[in-house]
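Let us work through a complete example step by step.
Step 1: write down the sequence.
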Amino acid sequence: MSPGRAASALPILLVEPQFVLRRTIVAVARELAQVEFHETTSAERALPVLGVRPFSGLVLDCDDHAVAADLLGRLRDGAFASPPRIPVVAITSLHDPDRDAWRQSMGVIGTLHKPFKIGALLERVQAMLSSPQAWVGTGLPHRP
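Step 2: predict the structure and record it as tokens.
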């Protein structure tokens, strides 16, 4: 493992429907040897992957709020192979303070609004992997 890579035995699951953005995130992370991503194109496609494979974190596109909320609720309820409290970073093109606040109440450690710099996302991911205490909270609520 490269010295720049965060210490993580498991990859991060990246859920992003936009092909160019998804591939750019993965390529830059690989080039900088910062983090390993496993990628899916939608929250629906992420469900079976989450069911059988653990991840050290999740980067979740939340533009489809209902589907993203369902995935987050299931994650926090312990329905997947990963621990229910893995760190989550949300990405969205929608500026909605109520949804941002709800995601924060579900333990999402931050929301990046598109367009964002890939470096900003990778910094957030590295921080969540190197400082688990930054995302471990107390008593996450269930779905709204």
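Step 3: interpret the result. Residues 1-7, 133-144 have pLDDT under 50 and may be disordered.
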